[in-house]
Amino acid sequence: MKKCFFLFLLVSVGVQSQTDSTRLQWFNDAKLGIFIHWGMYAVNGTSESWSFHNGTVPYDTYMHQMKGFTANRFDPEAWAALIQESGARYAVITTQHHDGLALWNTLELTPYPSKSDWNTSFPNSTYPAAKNALWDAKKPLSTIYQTPAARDLITPVSNALRKKGIHFGAYYSLLDWSHGDYPKFLKETDRYQITQDPQRWNRFLRFMHRQIAEINTQFSPDLYWFDGDWEHTEAEWGASTIDSIIHTSNPKAILNGRLPSYGDYSTPEQNMPITHPEKKSWELCLTSNESWGYQPTDTHYKTTNEVLRIFTECLNMGGNLLLDIGPKADGTIPEEQVRLLKEIGRWTNKHAEAIYGTNAGLPYGHYHGNSTLSKDRKTLYLFVNAVRPDGTPAQASIDLMLKGVKNQVVSAEVLGTTTNVPVKTVGKISWSRVPGTLFLNVPAEALDAEITVVKIVLDTSLDLYRGQGGFH
Asked: Which string of DSSP letters, residue by residue, matches 18-81?
């Protein structure tokens, strides 16, 4: 009986693992996503939610931005077309940031921060009288009821993306600093402790869980991107309930790793990992300048080459890049970000074969650069940076060195061109099992303006020598 039970357990685990693998396949193959931070913070170009939380902008000043959030030039089809042109296979948009403003048709009411909280937090500010209230507390804190946009902004985005075959992801902040029942308000102050007032915390949990249920019902996201998790434990957030709310009716949805026990993939932020993230599937979320939302004073944009070099680093480690843009309050996307996405799209379109549906590239030590490998392991793609330190394109041919490949090279070419790449083997000893070193010369005229890809077709599935050299 014990043996039968053990066998059943193994089979069950195996089935679950296969199910998870299948559910994540589109994400693992997608490689590139676009992150969209859009909210009232675009009106004054202030830091999204953090500006009031950290005390740099008074809360009432921050929330007054709702009155200027018009979205009067918002064109979801144009957004989707640009995202498709970039080569991204999924997009994630902020349905609600830490300031509590929902961009969809929520039915949940958000109670004000209490007057005592307000006066304690902002001694030089007066709590607004009813006629000048921050929002109409009789209606949901949503763009539909509280902003001149006066409509649900998530539905048209999700519909436009899906028409283009792009997977839709919903960002949602678990914490809500505007909600009067949420424990935290400003960085240095707490409204209360959960242990001292569990009923108040449970009121907030019901609010938050019902909002997640609304998002799940209205949009059935392919992906949930949770944020704000650091202020409480998984148990306090009711993570098991959140998982159940989503997967009972939307079993194929995947979750980011900020509720670790329930997350499907890791989400390092801004900084490229040196070693592989904890979970097998992962993405790096990265701003296109230095801000998540629209800030006109932030002109520190990454160059196309810098983004692509980071992207190929992600590809080399089997991960994705989620690149952020921040639309303006009127719904238009800054010109710098439009140009960046178009230039990335030029590159991804030319080199699609080396990007989508590939596996992680060569282990450290075989090639001084990034690479990917086809799923059948018979084609190797080497990424070659073709931009000099001063930002200008390389003017001469580039020599590459590849070590430890036991296979025979059938062909080598510059992807996206008709140029063959000569391959020279050096140091192969006939009676040694150690393979020779391969040298490849990429002609200058075949170099891409940003990153060149060399496609190497092997005679069989990639077989690597991992020894110490010499006769070993």
From this structure: HHHHHHHHHHHHH-EEEEE--SGGGTTT--TTHHHHTTSS-HHHHHGGGGG---TT--HHHHHH
Neighbours of 372 (CB within 10 A): 26
First to last CA, the chain: 50
Please give the average per-residue pLDDT across 352-361, as a whole number: 98
In one-letter notation, the amino acid at residue 22 is T
Q: Where in the chain is the domain with CATH 3.20.20.80?
A: 24-350
Q: What is the residue type of 213?
A: A
Burial class (CB in 10 A: 0-12, 13-18, 19+), 127: middle
**359-458: CATH architecture:** Sandwich (2.60)
Q: In the predicted model, is pLDDT for residue 11 greater than 80?
A: no
Ordered strands of the 398-402 beta sheet: 398-402, 437-442, 423-426
Q: Where in the chain is the domain with CATH 2.60.40?
A: 359-458
Cα–Cα dist 197/54, whole Å: 25
Q: 217: helix, coil or strand?
A: helix
Provide the token pair at 189.
Answer: 């102050």
> Does the pLDDT at position 239 exceed 50?
yes
198-219 and 239-249 helices cross at what angle (nearest 10)? 20
For 304-331, how does the pLDDT look when each residue is reduced to its tens digit (9 = 90+)?
Answer: 999 999 999 999 999 999 999 999 999 9
β-pairing verdict for 379-385 and 398-402: unpaired
Q: What percent of the chain has pLDDT over 70?
A: 92
User: Do 385 and 305 contact (CB within 8 A), yes or no?
Assistant: yes
DSSP β-ladder status, 371-373 and 359-360: antiparallel
CB 387 within 8 A of CB 393: yes
- For domain 24-350, the question of CATH label 3.20.20.80 is answered with yes
pLDDT of residue 265: 97
Q: Give the CA count within 13 Å in the CB-facing half-sphere of 183.
A: 16
Count, in order, helices (H) and strands (E) of the chain. 12, 15
Contact present, 36 and 94 (Cβ < 8 Å): yes
